[in-house]
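Regression test attached.
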Amino acid sequence: MKITVKGLRASFGDHEVVKGIDLAVPSRQITAIIGPSGCGKSTFLRCLNRMHELVPGASRAGQVLLDDTDVYADDVDPVLVRRWVGMVFQKPNPFPSMSIKDNVVAGLRLTHRYDRKDAPGVIERALRQAALWDEVKDKLNDPGTSLSGGQQQRLCIARALAVNPDVILLDEPCSALDPIATARIEELLLEIRRDYTMVIVTHNMGQAQRVAEHTAFFLQGELVEFDTTAALFGNPRDPRTADYIAGRFG
Amino acid sequence: MRRPIDLTSARPGVFAEKAFVWLCRLGAAIPLTMLAWLLYRVAAAGVHRLSWSFLTDPPSQLDASTAGLGPALLGTLWLIVLTATIALPIGIGAAIYLEEYSRRSKLAGVLELAIANLAGVPSIVYGMLGLGLFVHALAMGETVIAGALTLALLILPIIITSAREALRTVKDGLREAALGLGATRWQCTRQVVLPMALPGILTGAILAIARAIGETAPLVVVGAVAFILYGPDGVDAKYTALPMQIFQWTSNPKRAFLDNAAAGILVLMATLLVINGVAIWLRNRYQSRRS
Ligand SMILES: Nc1ncnc2c1ncn2[C@@H]1O[C@H](COP(=O)(O)OP(=O)(O)OP(=O)(O)O)[C@@H](O)[C@H]1O
Ligand SMILES: [Mg+2]
């Protein structure tokens, strides 16, 4: 197991949105999280790399073990957690002031781990992994925001890969994209899944079934069911899961 | 039976709409007219006094035609440089702290209230604060540094408020992107947020400094002298400033000095124009570099 979540609770002010979740995310696989809007998927995800606490008024209880270390232990530096556990957001957010290649190495630059000699190799490797290299190799100095939405999202994935994380959290990475761009991202996730542990939140049942080995179904801040994707979709044990995947609510 | 299509008869409310637009035009025209009129009156009276020696010569109590505003111009330049050096780092630092580090904390709320109130305090009160604090308590005397510190206090709320506005225009998604890559708050601020907010911060800062240049009341209180033959030669020198000099000339009983005052106003306005021009130029430069 790469990540073990124990009794995780998270709130915004008095409003508890994650209500005691236990979940184990297997290493070097893709785990999908599905559930209706507002059930706490994003909040849960943001607890895994300590982004949740950046929201003013946010609080949390419970444990998140990365390998064997509780990322919420007193002596843990949240900044270091985020270097191991990267994140790709719903809306592509390349840095507007940076070129394509500067965006790829932005993580290294920001954290002063940038080495001019290694940069071209790092840039090419990350862009190839993100299946973007062929499209941008002749215009690496163009601004990152000059790309299409789908390309920008792959650039953001390349940016996350370039800092060499262990885990990548993806929060509805395709929801702003058309089906072709979505298919490209799914291909790339399948391509790199043996090298990284990934957790992906998605509203797209097809996407969960296409990319994820395991799927978790959340409802109102609770984990209703967690199983292999095939079992969860093929033979759900909980009637609420069955209703949700059949499109009967949510 | 279908209605015939009518695309030409007047819509109801069309007159009110036209009247409103004209009212807006009038509103826009008023300040322009006032400025043009002011410039015209001042230029008519003062332009014949403008010369290099007017800009560099010391003032005179007796002869308006040989009096200059050299010491005052130099004093104002000293004030600009010192005030900016003091107020910019503190103001921008405070804005960064409030926006990036303590957002929505109780302390930030209290500070916000304090800053909003400070911005509304009359400038003469800052003069009295400067007199008590810098001139007397800290024993700086009536020096140019005491004046600059007082002006810095005066424009600090403006700088903080405008810098906060500028920081707020940077999308939170970019902060999250940077933090999500393992950047510290400072690395995120320094390398992502500040470069994007810089044009706005600089514009606000320069406008604040322009405000400081025109201030007279606090300088009167902290002891800028009305008559001095030399510009400051250090931070602990006595000094005067353009608005002080203009004020002194307008209160001189000899009519000829009024023309000097008008010429002084032209110099002051030209200085403001240059400063505002620099603000606009900086903003455009940074904006075009980013897009
Ligand atoms: N920054 C915030 N401040 C206050 N409440 C929030 C904040 N973000 C989310 N919430 C609340 O927390 C609850 C869960 O939100 P969350 O974003 O985790 O849901 P989600 O499952 O990701 O939904 P979606 O599928 O629409 O993205 C919602 O009720 C939402 O209103
Ligand atoms: Mg969400």
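Expected vs. actual: identical. The pocket of magnesium ion (ligand 2) is lined by residues A 41-42, 171 (CB under 6 Å).
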